[in-house]
């Protein structure tokens, strides 16, 4: 997928009526489906690669395109048209799922900009949390050992619930920081910022995602142990 400096393009004219295309899926002039293109999720909805998206508009566009692409509209069409309909419907569903979720949207943007690889640094503990994470892991080990021995767990569960709330607050703080950095990205896009500026912002977004992933895994682990206690 191409980076922002070389935005994904769509065919300039319809393969059927040769009129100028307004989007990569369906010709607005003749209604002809366009063959699959290497088009990113933002482009499928006619959106710039920005992180703020108006949700009601996204949903409305999704419903409109879903109706146009629905296989029932091509029962009398050619095999090729039916195949394109199924493929493009699947692409649209994937795009909608990614773009409607703020975290998935950031992950996808970084992926298509070449700034994130799946699994990258997700398990690295933020340095300033090492002591708290160490204490949490000790508490989790104590809970497991006590549970296996049939000992009283109330005190340990109270400590873990406090730790769960503490890391939940840290998770909310990371989300707030990422929201602010996302605004910086959108402003950079609007201003036509240079590659150095954009890469700096994307590095910050990547750091937020890595931090968020690690903390969220801690919260999920604690919740699981408490549920089993």
Summary of the model, kept short:
By secondary structure, the chain is an all-alpha fold. The protein is 63% helix and 0% strand.
Explain this structure.
The protein is mainly α. It has 2 domains: 4-100, DnaJ domain (Helix Hairpins), CATH 1.10.287; 127-228. It has helices at residues 41-44, 55-69, 79-100, 102-112, 130-149, 154-191, 195-228. It is elongated and about 75 Å long.
Secondary-structure blueprint of this entry?
Blueprint: H1 41-44, H2 55-69, H3 79-100, H4 102-112, H5 130-149, H6 154-191, H7 195-228
Helical region count? 7
Judging from the principal axes of the Cα atoms, what is the shape? Answer: elongated
The secondary structure category is mainly alpha
| Annotation, overall tally of beta strands | 0
List keywords for this structure.
Helix Hairpins; mainly alpha; 63% helix; 229 residues; 2 domains; disordered N terminus; elongated; single chain
């Amino acid at each position: 997928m191409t980076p922002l400096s070389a935005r994904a393009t769509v065919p300039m004219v319809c393969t059927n009526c040769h009129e100028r295309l307004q989007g990569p899926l369906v010709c607005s002039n003749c209604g002809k489906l366009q063959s699959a293109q290497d088009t990113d999720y933002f482009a499928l909805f006619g959106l710039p690669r920005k992180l703020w998206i108006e949700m009601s508009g996204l949903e409305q566009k999704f419903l409109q395109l879903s109706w146009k692409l629905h296989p029932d509209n091509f029962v009398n069409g050619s095999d090729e048209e039916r195949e394109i309909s199924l493929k493009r419907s699947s692409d649209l569903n994937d795009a909608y799922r990614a773009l409607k979720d703020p975290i998935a949207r950031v992950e996808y943007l970084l992926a298509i900009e070449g700034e994130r690889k799946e699994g990258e640094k997700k398990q690295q503990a933020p340095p300033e949390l090492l002591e708290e994470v160490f204490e949490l892991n000790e508490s989790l080990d104590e809970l497991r050992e006590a549970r296996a021995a049939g000992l009283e767990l109330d005190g340990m569960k109270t400590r873990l619930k406090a730790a769960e709330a503490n890391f939940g607050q840290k998770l909310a703080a990371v989300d707030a920081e990422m929201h602010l950095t996302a605004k910086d990205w959108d402003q950079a896009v609007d201003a036509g910022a240079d590659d150095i500026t954009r890469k700096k912002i994307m590095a910050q977004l990547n750091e937020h995602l890595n931090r968020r992933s690690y903390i969220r895994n801690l919260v999920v682990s604690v919740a699981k142990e408490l549920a089993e206690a």
